[in-house]
Design goal:
Helices cover 37% and strands 11% of the residues. The chain contains six helices and five strands, in the order H-H-E-H-E-H-E-H-E-H-E. The protein has a five-stranded parallel sheet with strand order 2-3-1-4-5, sandwiched between helices. Strand 2, helix 4 and strand 3 form a beta-alpha-beta unit. Helix 2 packs parallel to helix 3. The two termini are 29 Å apart.
Length: 184
């Protein structure tokens, strides 16, 4: 909307930071509140472990997942350096004040699967990220099991479709439920 940008510029706005991913799709993006409600709806219904992958830099989504973990009685473990770094920085700067304490991955065996919420890097199918290693059964700290659920809580960046479909297929072959934006 060129005219709207010109109007904003004339009001003294000097900079606008925006994300153009999927900008050519008509309509509005959903709010984080809608995402949190959807995540709660999906995660609260799962009888076993749930692993969620999202953009590590999406602090609002991380906050939503912390909220969902508390309200569903699940404990959070993090797989992936990028997520660990973003959570640590967000907590230190006051953005994740209410975020629950993390469970070290070495302590997951002490928790029932029904109480585990795993946050993992790799929402775009990156081959060296935690989610790809989980899908291949190659992660050193965790093995996803039949009946577990993986939630991809991000839109697909155009060009990543093939990598993600391969990842979804690997998970489905292990009888792990896959939930994407198309599902919830």
């Amino acid at each position: 909307d060129d005219q709207r940008l010109i109007e904003l510029g004339s009001t003294g706005v000097n900079f606008i930071v925006g994300d153009s991913t999927n900008a050519l799709i008509d309509g509005w993006s959903g709010s984080e509140k809608e995402c949190r409600t959807g995540l709660y709806s999906v995660i609260s219904q799962q009888p076993y472990r749930v692993a969620v992958t999202c953009f590590s830099s999406n602090t609002a989504r991380l906050s939503s997942l912390g909220n969902v973990a508390k309200s569903t009685g699940r404990r959070i473990s993090v797989l992936g350096r990028s997520l660990q770094n973003y959570i640590q920085i967000a907590k230190a700067t006051g953005y994740l004040k209410e975020f629950p304490d993390l469970v070290p991955t070495c302590d997951l065996d002490y928790l029932p699967r029904s109480e585990q919420l795993i946050l993992a890097t790799g929402s775009q199918g990156e081959p060296r990220a935690a989610m790809a290693k989980l899908a291949k059964g190659e992660h050193p700290d965790l093995v996803l099991e039949q009946g577990d659920t993986v939630v991809f809580s991000s839109k697909v960046i155009p060009g990543n479709e093939k990598k993600l479909f391969r990842l979804h297929d690997l998970l489905s072959q292990k009888q792990i439920s896959v939930v994407t934006e198309a599902d919830a």
